[in-house]
Structures are given as structure tokens and as C-alpha cells.
Amino acid sequence: xxxxxxxxxxxxxxxxxxxxxxxxxxxxxxxxxxxxxxxxxxxxxxxxxxxxxxxxxxxxxxxxxxxxxxxxxxxxxxxxxxxxxxxxxxxxxxxxxxxxxxxxxxxxxxxxxxxxxxxxxxxxxxxxxxxxxxxxxxxxxxxxxxxxxxxxxxxxxxxxxxxxxxxxxxxxxxxxxxxxxxxxxxxxxxxxxxxxxxxxxxxxxxxxxxxxxxxxxxxxxxxxxxxxxxxxxxxxxxxxxxxxxxxxxxxxxxxxxxxxxxxxxxxxxxxxxxxxxxxxxxxxxxxxxxxxxxxxxxxxxxxxxxxxxxxxxx
Length: 314
Description:
- Keywords: Methyltransferase, Transferase.
- This is Methyltransferase domain protein.
- The chain is α/β, with parallel strands linked by helices.
- Helix content is 24%, strand content 17%.
- β8, α4 (190-205) and β9 form a beta-alpha-beta unit.
């Protein structure tokens, strides 16, 4: 198959109870079997989406009714990816190259990309690290993905019911924008429980010494031109708009401040890890905030500008 052709999306049947033994549904994705996964064809995708005012939205009680899942949203996600890449200067931060470096007489390194979306990040990473195997997972079959030799599979299942992978099988787990990917009946309570369970699952599938990359929008407004970055006087309309967006997120059960809680959940001193038989949790936790301009970004005359407001207004 040529690289430009679309690859298959595998739908993982989730027939297990929430408290079931995850080992019973875990499969090594490099060894797909007929009874564990089936190909998700285009006619089946209608079971996952509904049309509202000309836009397609996921049919999933666990996914907030906030952002659509169609071609226009795919374009927005691509622009959003480009903006974040410009801010970071790369597709990643931290010791990614060191973790993914070739190791003599060792198995190939593996990366798990959660909530893949349009798939730009995983494709670019697979091209940059051809000696590494990638697994892509999302909760809905968003778009047909481009086939790549070292992207072993694109999978679709309920991540908040567990990651369908074996223990200690990945060197890096990558997660972006988790707060927009799940919904809770009780805002700020059940939502945190969902995130905590996902953090436990991420820790489970990471190899010792593995790396967890997490990125989230703060949905806050700042003014870089003043010393304390307070935008209430210089951009009151923006402040009001962001407050309205947070209120809408809250109304739908989305915890808009997930970025504050996830780092705390990673810490070994968190109550999340107290019931573990052995000391668990993450170490060497590093956080960094990046200011995202609400104007066009232009790195050079050769590169097109990225209209940042478009990332959310579309």
C-alpha cells in the first residue's frame, strides 16, 4: 500500500464492565486478532456521529457537546497543532530524544498517542523517529488516517474505561486537551475521578523510566504588555468572552481547570497513590506555561500566518 493511501481504523469492542480485569481485553496491537478487533468501515461511522446545524458531532455520552468532528474541525485542529508547534519550537518538550534514542540489543521503542484527533502529531513524530513504533487511540473515528510503516494501528475505544494495552509497554505516552474529551454528571467531582483513573492507566502502561507528555489550554487571558499580565483593563471584552467560555464548559460538565489538577495527580505524595503496594507515581515533574497570542503568528516571510483566534472561533 502506498504511503498516501488511507490506513484502516480498528474499533475495539468494549464489552467489559468498568471493574473488569483489564488483562482480559488487552492485546498487543502488533498482533491484531480477528476476535479482538474489527475494521471500522465508512458505513459504520454514522453510528458515531449526528448532524446538528450542518455540523457533525460525536454520539457519545462521555464526549461533551462542544466541538464538532468533521472536515472543518479537522482543519481547525491542524491549525491548532501548527500554533502549538510554533510556541514549543517542536512537536514535543522534555527529554524525548533521549528516551527514544536507539538502544543496542533492546526492542524498538514505543509511543502511545491518546486522543489523536486529526493525527498530525503522530504522523510528524513517526516521520521524525522512524525507528520508533507508534500506537494511536481516540474515542471516535475522526478521520481516515494516512498509512505509515511505524504507526502500527489507529484504534477507537472508550479510553476512560481503561487503556487496552499491557503493562509497561510504552516509553512515551502523549496526551493533549483531555478536558474536552470527557463529560461528567457532577462538574469538578466526577470529572477529576475520570482524570485520576486515566492517570493511573497511563502510569500502568509506561515502562519504568518512561515519559508522560501532557498539554492543556488554560482558557485564561493575559496581557504580555503589562508587568502582572492582567488583561482586565486592557482587554475587557476578551476577559468576558473567556469567562463565558468557561461557564459553558462548566455547564456541560467539563472541568475547565484540568491543567491545574493533572500535575498534582502525578505527584507520588498524592492520595491517588496511597493504596498502592509499592511507591508509585511520577518523578521529575516539570511544568511550563506558554503564552498563545490572539494575533496572527508569522515566523518568517516564507511561512503562512496562523490565525490563532480561528483555532477556537470556527
